[in-house]
Amino acid sequence: MGIIRNTKVPVIGIVEDGGNVVLKVVPWVTKRTISKLFEVHIAKGSTMVTDSYGLYNHLGRSPYYKHEVVNHKKDEYVNKDGFSTNRIEGCFSILKRGIYGIYHSVSPQHLQKYCNEFASRYNSRKIADDERFDKAIENCLGRLNMLTL
Questions:
Q1: What is the rounded distance in angstroms from the CA atom of residue 123 to the CA atom of residue 19?
Q2: How sure is the predictor about 145, in pLDDT bands with cuts at 50, 70 and 90?
Q3: How far apart are CA 60 and CA 65, in angstroms?
Q4: CB atoms inside a 10 Å sphere around CB 8
Q5: SS3 call for 50
Q6: Is the pLDDT of residue 72 over 60?
Q7: Within 13 Å, how many C-alpha atoms sit on residue 66's CB side?
Q8: Model pLDDT for residues 75-86, shown as the tens digit of each residue
Q9: Kind and range of the H or E element at 24?
Q10: CA distance 118 to 26
Q11: In Å, how far are 66, 129, 145, 146 from 135, measured between CA atoms?
Q12: CA 59/CA 66 separation, integer angstroms
């Protein structure tokens, strides 16, 4: 009998309020990993909203971001200041439903490509179908690439 391993691969999601989402597959979820992603994808001075996972505690000490926490362990889904994590949870829900319902399973090797596809779908949700089609054709050089909006 072979060894059974946890096959979950970490994906970090960052979504802008009313804007786009970035989904990144990472080898390990560490303070260093998430800090690098935040530096690249989040403007200084932004308000970061996270759940109460301990790895995010350092954000409250950052001079670059304001940090709001939503504590699901205490049945809190909107904090006292009106912040929630509903938008990113919705993005992950769409990704998971797509994988389970359309593709049924994906290999860790190709997970980033699926994340790119679903991020593109989310990021193009407000444009007309004909414009989305035109952008897909524009991005088609040999193989279909992630939509760049």
A1: 7
A2: low
A3: 8
A4: 7
A5: strand
A6: yes
A7: 6
A8: 999 999 999 999
A9: strand 21-25
A10: 17
A11: 35, 10, 10, 10
A12: 8
